[in-house]
Amino acid sequence: SGPAELGEGLPWLTGVEGTPGVSLTQTRSRGSRLNIIIIAEGAIDRNGKPISSSYVKDLVVQRLGFDTRVTVLGHVQRGGTPSAFDRVLSSKMGVEAVMALLEATPDTPACVVSLSGNQPVRLPLMECVQVTKEVQKAMDDRRFDEAIQLRGRSFENNWNIYKLLAHQKLSKEKVRRGSRAGHVASEALSPPAACLPALQPGVRERGLVAGRPACPRLAVVRCYGHPEHERKSCCLLVPVPRVPAVWQPVAHQGGWGHRPPTIPLIPQSCDRIKQSASGTKRRVFIVETMGGYCGYLATVTGIAVGADAAYVFEDPFNIHDLKANVEHMTEKMKTDIQRGLVLRNEKCHEHYTTEFLYNLYSSEGKGVFDCRTNVLGHLQQGGAPTPFDRNYGTKLGVKAMLWMSEKLRAVYRKGRVFANAPDSACVIGLRKKAVAFSPVTELKKDTDFEHRMPREQWWLSLRLMLKMLAHYRINMASYVSGELEHVTRRTLSIDKGF
């Protein structure tokens, strides 16, 4: 239940008797009138005895006198509409599984396809089974800390971050609003979680100044030295927890300087369009998405909704490519699936506009299919973040604050903060298999300032998968297969700082 707890911000519950009362009493003392406790169906205490929901309810009612209700989710928590992340994840893992079968030899061990960061990996099946058995053995021997480590880095990371956020909260009476900037050096050296309230936009607490940038998913945090001395500052771009920052970080997946759109709402709109197309046979929709010159949104959405083509700026195309797409669409209309969906990034081409594509498809498909256009525009923005977005945004926020606290300790000398090193201004983001900090000075050479995006886009490898799923005849020689990684205790240990 670790990821679920991170997404909801729930009071922490362990198997040690008495801990629930302390946690609930503290949250009530801060003014919270609603508390939620999540219990896994196989929860046990440190003595191996089961912890049931009725037991926890009786404990809270008898010792604290709080009105308590019990809800057993059961099979209600199954099913539901898959999010855009779920669709892309299943597609990537499915393609990797098929490629693993095609590349297998008689000597190749059976493997499990997984995802590490944004990279597919292959894990030997028997090693995974062995680790699973060791987890159960550790639980039977009451070696709970070891069992958590054997669950893997993601599980251990979620659990540690949740404990950090659940316990080290800053009470209201200890917050001094409008404090002088000179106190940042001494007060920022307190536990990292105490700095988390400063992430809220528009709030100035404990010497941390948080502003409202153009991107609502980031808070600009500046740290100043003593006001009587020369002002030396460091600036951070810190993702605000529990927002869909994973889909569109600034200068990482779609440029900057504008309110970045999010992916989850685009598939929903495309689903409705495809449903409309299914009611009328032989109809093709041409949908324009936002994103500036960056085609990340169009590409990932194309995979999530099963688009027939996605035109982006990073993958140049000409009239011959358009001709091949139209011919492919014509052949598709002869099958049982007599509908089509084409995505176009808003700035993918100067002359091949949405209107041009509409006229081309309408003219070449005359008598076979008809066309409609739809410009999503600002309809694709906003929406409620998914559980993955909440979890990932929270983890990025915690990692940013831990990094910031460590830097402040390193540069604090005699009442002053010297933040003049290149690594004092960084951007946090996912780099292949790990979350990393990149100094802004180093990002300059890797950034295309004219088009407001990175010079090299990691997601371009997904273009091949998009065409393959759309049943184009392509050469898979350029497909980069996942590496075979062994599962050992060392690989399962959590990496430092996250």
TrEMBL record:
GO terms for biological process: canonical glycolysis; fructose 1,6-bisphosphate metabolic process; fructose 6-phosphate metabolic process; negative regulation of insulin secretion; response to glucose. Pathway: Carbohydrate degradation; glycolysis; D-glyceraldehyde 3-phosphate and glycerone phosphate from D-glucose: step 3/4. GO terms for molecular function: 6-phosphofructokinase activity; AMP binding; ATP binding; fructose binding; fructose-6-phosphate binding; identical protein binding; kinase binding; metal ion binding. Its cofactor is Mg(2+). The keyword Membrane does not apply. It catalyses: beta-D-fructose 6-phosphate + ATP = beta-D-fructose 1,6-bisphosphate + ADP + H(+). InterPro entries: ATP_PFK, Phosphofructokinase_CS, Phosphofructokinase_dom, PKF_sf. It holds the Pfam family PFK. Keywords: Acetylation, Cytoplasm, Glycolysis, Glycoprotein, Kinase, Magnesium, Metal-binding, Phosphoprotein, Transferase. This is Phosphofructokinase, liver type. The lineage of its organism: Eukaryota, Metazoa, Chordata, Craniata, Vertebrata. The gene is PFKL.
